TrEMBL record, chain A:
It holds the Pfam family Cytochrom_B558a. PANTHER family: CYTOCHROME B-245 LIGHT CHAIN. InterPro entries: Cyt_b558_asu. Subunit of NADPH oxidase complexes that is required for the NADPH oxidase activity that generates, in various cell types, superoxide from molecular oxygen utilizing NADPH as an electron donor. Subunit of the phagocyte NADPH oxidase complex that mediates the transfer of electrons from cytosolic NADPH to O2 to produce the superoxide anion (O2(-)). In the activated complex, electrons are first transferred from NADPH to flavin adenine dinucleotide (FAD) and subsequently transferred via two heme molecules to molecular oxygen, producing superoxide through an outer-sphere reaction. It comes from the Eukaryota. Its main location: membrane. The keyword Protein biosynthesis does not apply. Residues 137-188 are annotated as: Disordered. Residues 144-161 have a biased composition (Pro residues). Residues 162-171 have a biased composition (Basic and acidic residues). Keywords: Cell membrane, Electron transport, Heme, Iron, Membrane, Metal-binding, NADP, Oxidoreductase, Transmembrane, Transmembrane helix, Transport. This is Cytochrome b-245 light chain.
UniProtKB/TrEMBL annotation, chain B:
Its cofactor is FAD. Keywords: Cell membrane, Electron transport, FAD, Flavoprotein, Glycoprotein, Heme, Ion channel, Ion transport, Iron, Isopeptide bond, Membrane, Metal-binding, NADP, Oxidoreductase, Phosphoprotein, Transmembrane, Transmembrane helix, Transport, Ubl conjugation, Voltage-gated channel. Signal peptide: none annotated. The gene is LOC115415882. This is NADPH oxidase 2. It holds the Pfam family Ferric_reduct. It comes from the Eukaryota. Catalytic subunit of the phagocyte NADPH oxidase complex that mediates the transfer of electrons from cytosolic NADPH to O2 to produce the superoxide anion (O2(-)). In the activated complex, electrons are first transferred from NADPH to flavin adenine dinucleotide (FAD) and subsequently transferred via two heme molecules to molecular oxygen, producing superoxide through an outer-sphere reaction. Residues 239-352 form the FAD-binding FR-type domain. It is found in: Cell membrane.
Length: 188, 522
C-alpha cells in the first residue's frame, strides 16, 4: 500500500459527503421537519464542502485528472493558501463541520460520511501529503516546437568545407556524389 | 402529509431486493466463463453479451445507489409523519389513535415511534432496521467513493479492500427486516375491524356498541433473503473456485525480455487448457498478495506451454520484471524465479474467430496480443497439421503509435510470412501495419529507403503504411472481394476506434455481406 495518496480518496469521500449533507438538508427544510434549523445548516455546510472539495488536487506521482470546469474553483481554493493546502486543517475543519449534522436524522448520514472523510484526510496529512492546485501549463513550460516544422529551411543544406568543394579535376570520380532524391527537370 | 411516505420507501426497497440479487452475478467470472461456453452452442450473440459483465455490474450499482437514496428520503418523511402522529395528542385524529395502539402489550402496535419521549434519530440507532440501514448505507457510500475511476486505476488496494465491505452490505441487508418494523394489520384483526368502514370512527373503537374492535398489527416477516441467498451462495462458490485455482502450482519455464519493455513469461500448469485469445489473471505473491492482473495469452493452444507478453508500465509490472531478474543480463536459475498463480483461462470474443470464413482483425498497439495467439494457432493448424480450417482469409490491421513496439510481434509475422511463402499460401493472411505517429527524423529515413524491397521498420515484405487506415475503403474492398459471406470483425483497442468500426460494420452490411463486430475488452 506504499504509494497510495489517501487525499485522493478523502477528496471523493468528502465531495460525496457534501452532496449527501446537502440533500439531507434540503429534505429537512422542504419537509419542514422538526429541527429544520439543523437541516438549513446542512444545506449551507453541504454547499461549502462541495465547493471546497470540487477541485481535485494534483497527484504527486502520475497524471492528475481534473474535474470538468474545476479551474475557477481551483483559483478560489488556492487563494486561501496554507489553510487549504494543509490536510490537517481540512481534517479538523470537516470534523467540526459534521458535528451539527448529527442532531437531526435527515443530516446524520452526511455527518457520518464527512466524519469518515475527515479521518481519511487525517491519514493523508500524517503521511505528509498536501494539496497542490492543478493549473493549466503555461506556454513557457511547454517544449518549444522545432522551427523546422513551421518554416521552410532558411539556410542551404550543409556543405563540406571549401577546400573539398573546389572541383577536383584530378579526381572526377571522387568529386561526384549520389543524389538521394531523384533530380528531375523543373516542369513549371 | 406524509401518508404515502411508507409506500415511497417500500417501492425502492422492492427494487433494491431485485438489484442486490443481480449485482453479485456479473462478477462471478468463472461461472460466466462456464455459461459462455455452454450458451455458445445455442447463440453466439447471447454469449457475447456476457463480455459486458463489468458494465452491467456498474449499472446495477448505480441503480442500487439511486434506489437507496429514494428509500432513505422516503423514510425520513415517513418517520417525521410517525413522530407527528405520536405528538399531536389529539384523540380525534386517526394517526394519533393508531399510534396509541399496543401501548399495553407492546406487540400489536403500528407506529414504531412508541411514545413522545423518543425521536426518529433514536429509533434509527436503537432498532435493527435503523442500525442495519445506517451501516449498509455507509458501506455502500464507501464502496462507491473508492470505486471512482481515479481511485480504481491508481490505488488498486484501496478499491479492492473497500469493495469487500459488500459483505457487511449483504449481511446488513438480510437482517434489515428482522426487527419487523414494518407493520400490517393481522388477518384476525381484519375480521373485527375493517379499515374501509372503521377508519372514520377511530374515537369509538373497542367501545360497546361499536362494530369496530381495536385493530391489531404485527410485523411483516423479512423477505430480502429470498432474493439474495442464491446469488450469495454462487459468489461464495466463485471465490472458492478462484482460491482453489490460485493454489495450483504454476511453473515459469522461460522468461524473455523483448525490446520496448515487454516481458514474456512462458509457464506451465498441470491440466491447463486454453482456447485462442483467452486471458488469465496472474498473481505474484512476492510482488503483491492482493493484486490479480489480467493478461491475454499470446501462445497458441497447440503449444506445450502458455505465455503472456506483459508490458512494463506500472508498479506491479515493474516489480514483476525485477522479480524475474529482468534487469540482470546473465541467465537465471529456474528455482530463483518467483512463484506465480493463475486464475483462468477466461474466454473472450476472440474464440469466435475461427467460426467466420473471412476475418478482419484490428489491433491497436498492445491490443494486438490476442491476435498473436490466433495467428500462431492458424500457423500450427494449417501448416504443421494441415487441418481443414473453416477460416479462409484473414485481414490483419495493426495500428501502432511508435516503431519500437513492433519487435516481438514483427518476429512472429516474419516467421509466418516465411512459412506461408514456403507452402505457397501467401494469400491466406493479408496484413497491414499502420504507423500512426512518427518523428521528423524517422520520416526522413523512410523517404530515403522508400524503394527498398523490405520494409525498413519491420523487415517484412508488406510495407508499413503511415497514418490511419481509411476504413471505408478497406470495408468496401473486402465486401467486394467476398460477397455473400459473414465477415467477423475483431477489435482490441480504444473505444473510439471501436465506435468507428462498429459504424463501418453497420453501414457496409448491405446485400449479402455482413460485417459482425466483436469487441475484446477487459
Amino acid at each position: 500500500m506504499g504509494k497510495i495518496e489517501w487525499a485522493m480518496w478523502a477528496n471523493e469521500q468528502a465531495l460525496a459527503s457534501g452532496l449527501i449533507l446537502l440533500t439531507g438538508g434540503i429534505v429537512g427544510v422542504a419537509g419542514q421537519f422538526r429541527g429544520w434549523q439543523f437541516a438549513a445548516y446542512g444545506v449551507a455546510a453541504g454547499v461549502f464542502v462541495c465547493l471546497l472539495e470540487y477541485p481535485r488536487g494534483k497527484r504527486s506521482k502520475g497524471t492528475s485528472v481534473a474535474r470538468t470546469g474545476q479551474y475557477c474553483f481551483t483559483v478560489c481554493v488556492k487563494a486561501f493558501g496554507p489553510l487549504t493546502r494543509n490536510y490537517y486543517v481540512r481534517a479538523f475543519l470537516h470534523a467540526a463541520i459534521c458535528v451539527p449534522g448529527g442532531f437531526m436524522l435527515a443530516t446524520v448520514l452526511g455527518c457520518v460520511c464527512l466524519g469518515i472523510a475527515s479521518l481519511i484526510y487525517l491519514a493523508a496529512a500524517i503521511r505528509g501529503e498536501h494539496w497542490e492546485p492543478i493549473l493549466p501549463r503555461t506556454e513557457t513550460q511547454r517544449k518549444p516546437v522545432p522551427p523546422s516544422i513551421k518554416n521552410p529551411p532558411s539556410n542551404p543544406p550543409p556543405r563540406p568545407p571549401p577546400e573539398m568543394r573546389r572541383k577536383r579535376v584530378d579526381d572526377l570520380e571522387g568529386a561526384a556524389y549520389d543524389n538521394p532524391i531523384p533530380v528531375t527537370a523543373n516542369e513549371y | 402529509r406524509g401518508r404515502h411516505a411508507l409506500s415511497w420507501a417500500r417501492a425502492p426497497a422492492a427494487a433494491l431486493n431485485f438489484n442486490c440479487m443481480l449485482i453479485l452475478l456479473p462478477v462471478c467470472r468463472n461461472l460466466l466463463s462456464f455459461l459462455r461456453g455452454s450458451i455458445q452452442f445455442c447463440s453466439r450473440t447471447a454469449a457475447r453479451q456476457l463480455d459486458r459483465n463489468l458494465t452491467f455490474h456498474k449499472l446495477v450499482a448505480y441503480m442500487i445507489a439511486f434506489h437507496t437514496a429514494v428509500h432513505i428520503i422516503a423514510h425520513l418523511f415517513n418517520f417525521e409523519f410517525f413522530w407527528d402522529a405520536q405528538l399531536t395528542n389529539d384523540t380525534s385524529s386517526l394517526p394519533y389513535v393508531l399510534s396509541q395502539i399496543g401501548n399495553n402489550d407492546n406487540a400489536s402496535f403500528l407506529n414504531p415511534i412508541r411514545n413522545n419521549h423518543t425521536s426518529p434519530t433514536l429509533i434509527t440507532f436503537t432498532t435493527i432496521a435503523g442500525l442495519t440501514g445506517v451501516a449498509i448505507t455507509l458501506a455502500l457510500i464507501l464502496i462507491i467513493t473508492s470505486s471512482m475511476e481515479v481511485i480504481r486505476r491508481s490505488y488498486f488496494e484501496v478499491f479492492w479492500y473497500t469493495h469487500h465491505l459488500f459483505v457487511i452490505f449483504f449481511m446488513g441487508l438480510v437482517f434489515h427486516g428482522y426487527g419487523r418494523i414494518v407493520r400490517g394489520q393481522t388477518v384476525s384483526s381484519l375480521r373485527t375491524n375493517q379499515p374501509e368502514r372503521c377508519f372514520n370512527h377511530s374515537d369509538t373503537w373497542g367501545e360497546d356498541g361499536s362494530d369496530c374492535a381495536v385493530p391489531e398489527f404485527a410485523g411483516n416477516p423479512p423477505g430480502t433473503w429470498k432474493w439474495v441467498l442464491a446469488p450469495m451462495i454462487l459468489y461464495v462458490c466463485e471465490r472458492l473456485v478462484r482460491f482453489y485455482r490460485s493454489h495450483q502450482k504454476v511453473v515459469i519455464t522461460k522468461v524473455v525480455m523483448h525490446p520496448s519493455k515487454t516481458l514474456e513469461l512462458q509457464m506451465k500448469r498441470k491440466g491447463f487448457r486454453m482456447e485462442v485469445g483467452q486471458y488469465v489473471f496472474i498473481q505474484c505473491p512476492s510482488v503483491s498478495r492482493l493484486e490479480w492482473h489480467p493478461f491475454t495469452l499470446t501462445s497458441a493452444p497447440e503449444e506445450d506451454y502458455f505465455s503472456a507478453h506483459i508490458r512494463i508500465v506500472g508498479d506491479w509490472t515493474e516489480a514483476l520484471y525485477q522479480a524475474c531478474g529482468g534487469d540482470r543480463t546473465e541467465p537465471q536459475e529456474a528455482w530463483k524465479l518467483p512463484k506465480v498463480a493463475i486464475d483462468g483461462p477466461f474466454g473472450t470474443a476472440s474464440e469466435d474467430v475461427f467460426r467466420y470464413e473471412v476475418v478482419m482483425l484490428v489491433g491497436a498497439g498492445i491490443g494486438v496480443t490476442p491476435f498473436a495467439s490466433i495467428l500462431k494457432s492458424v500457423w500450427y493448424k494449417h501448416i504443421q497439421k494441415n487441418q481443414e480450417v473453416y477460416t479462409k482469409k484473414i485481414y490483419f490491421y495493426w495500428l501502432c503509435p511508435e516503431t519500437q513496439a513492433f519487435e516481438w510481434f514483427a518476429d512472429l509475422l516474419q516467421s509466418l510470412e516465411g512459412q506461408m511463402n514456403d507452402k505457397g499460401m501467401s494469400d491466406f493472411l493479408s496484413y497491414n501495419i499502420y504507423l500512426t505517429r512518427w518523428k521528423e527524423t524517422e520520416a526522413a529515413h523512410f523517404r530515403v529507403h522508400h524503394e527498398a524491397e523490405n520494409d525498413p521498420i519491420t523487415g517484412l515484405k508488406q510495407k508499413t503504411l503511415y497514418g490511419k487506415p481509411n476504413w471505408d475503403n478497406e470495408f468496401t474492398n473486402i465486401s467486394t472481394k467476398h460477397p455473400g459471406t459473414k465477415v467477423g470483425v475483431f477489435l482490441c483497442g480504444p473505444p473510439q476506434l471501436g465506435k468507428a468500426l462498429e459504424k463501418q460494420c453497420l453501414s457496409h452490411s448491405e446485400a449479402d455481406t455482413q460485417f459482425i463486430f466483436n469487441k475484446e475488452n477487459f
